[in-house]
Amino acid sequence: MSRHWLMKSEPEEFSIDDLERVGTEPWSGVRNYQARNYMRDGMRIGDGILFYHSNCAEPGIVGLAEVRSEAYPDPSQFQRRSDYYDPASTPEAPRWLLVDVGFRRKLARTITLAELKDRDELGDFALTRRGNRLSVLPVTRTQWDFILALEKPRRGR
DNA sequence: GCCAACGTTGGC
DNA sequence: GCCAACGTTGGC
C-alpha cells in the first residue's frame, strides 16, 4: 500500500529545481522525533511526496517527489562541523534518520498555502493545522488526489 | 515531574 | 523584522 507525504524545504536552502538537478537527495537535517518516526515507521519506497516550499515569498506545493530508500542513519549527525551535528548520538545507536528523496516532476503552478487553507475539502490537513511546524507530515489519498486536481483548474470558475 | 527560559519554525 | 506556537533544556 502506497502512502503519501508532504515534505517542506526552504527554497533558498534546497528547492524543487535543486532536486530536479540532482535527481535524488539524502534528506538530511530532520531533527524532530515525530518527523523521524514518520520516515522510519511510515515511509516505504515508492511513496509519493508533495514538495513544499516554506519560508519564502509564496509558500506552497511546487512539485512531486517520491521516497527512494528506507530510512537510514543521517551521516550529518556524526560530523562535528555540520550544523546538524548531534554530540549525543553514536553510530551504535544513531538518533536521527533520513530517506533518499527522488524527483518526479514540477507542478504546472504553485498550489499556495493560502489556497490550501481555503479548501474545506481537505478536511483535517496536517499542513494547515494551527501551530503546525513539522517538516515531514502525512497526506491522505483523498487529500493527495484533491490537491493534484487543483493543479489544472477547470474553466468557468 | 514541573515549569520557566530559551531556541526554532515559518507565516505575515 | 515581528511574533505566535511549538519543542527542548535544565534547575529544582
Automatic annotation (TrEMBL):
<dbReference type="InterPro" id="IPR002740">
    <property type="entry name" value="EVE_domain"/>
</dbReference>
<keyword id="KW-0597">Phosphoprotein</keyword>
<feature type="domain" description="EVE">
    <location>
        <begin position="3"/>
        <end position="149"/>
    </location>
</feature>
<dbReference type="Pfam" id="PF01878">
    <property type="entry name" value="EVE"/>
</dbReference>
<dbReference type="InterPro" id="IPR015947">
    <property type="entry name" value="PUA-like_sf"/>
</dbReference>
<protein>
    <submittedName>
        <fullName>RNA-binding protein</fullName>
    </submittedName>
</protein>
<dbReference type="InterPro" id="IPR052181">
    <property type="entry name" value="5hmC_binding"/>
</dbReference>
<dbReference type="InterPro" id="IPR047197">
    <property type="entry name" value="THYN1-like_EVE"/>
</dbReference>
